[in-house]
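A common beginner's mistake is to predict each chain separately and then try to dock the pieces by hand. The better habit, illustrated here, is to supply every component at once so that their relative placement is modeled jointly.
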Amino acid sequence: MIVIGWIAGRGKKLGKSVGEYYLAGRNLGFITLFFTLYATQYSGNTIVGYAPTAYREGFSWLQSIPFMTAIIGVYLIFAPRLYVIAKRAKFVTPTDWISYRFESKRVTIVAILLMLWGLGNYLLEQLVAIGHAVSGLTAGAIPYGYAVIGFIVVMLIYEWLGGMRAVAVTDVLQGIILLVGIFVVLIGALALAGGSLSGVSETIATTEPQKIGVPDLQTNINWISMILLAGIGAAVYPHAVQRIYSAKSERTLKRSFARMAWMLQLRRG
Amino acid sequence: MKEPIQKKWIWVGFVLLILFNAPWYLPEGMIEPYILGIPFWALISVGLSLILCAYLSWLCMTQWNLIEDEEEEEFEKERRQS
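With all components supplied together, the output reads:
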């Protein structure tokens, strides 16, 4: 990742242009933009949170498929116009839009605080996830705390070396790892469970029928709420908004969203 | 010029696909029939999720065009000049 960050930032005027550092010169092409948007919607909880939730909740966790797809629906509400305005007014950060729209320092400061609060939780979640993942995968050989510090150091170095371009390019690699990883985990889990979907379903139906049957009304209400909550929440991630600013063109942006709608489904499925 | 937020039918379709994604309209606790080892109700839900995905993908490609033509013309000019 550090090498990729270094290569991404080499020869670019990162120290001289804010747009170059934070938005990769507003020149992210289709492949890079697609993978960086894709990787942005996934985080530590995809691995250490959702899979265990599916195990605990059963089939009703199928709600996690549409709630990620709904993000694209929410993007369609604001991203088309935001991209145009951001390009014309040269926005760099998500709060530039708030300042542009409301022309109020107070509103902008409130927005900054809210975004920092959200991002703080998001970042902490990544640190906890990487700590547990590395510690678990190495059977404790690398302790939790060291894994977290190592993750922070690597992240800071590649971002410092290459700015948004480094983040986007490393996202391409992370997106590919995510894609390959999910198939390996899926095949591995099925093999460990006896190799047959019918067998797995029948075992669940015998031992814990509530996990495989049509859920009760309350769960159905929560299901719909989760689609709306995740759709709205993840679409306005400050770092996701910044990727809208980074698109090379409207065509690139909408093509990335169109492909992402399928990939989110595939990944979550 | 096409902008998704201006078209009401887009949002009616979106809301319907979300509402029917949860199987509230089927009897609670229903498991069978199985299809390919998966309960039928779960397949309906996955099928509706796939339709949602296809719908949104199609909307992005066909119902969104604010400055695309303008930008493509500019890119074309730049290409010719270089």
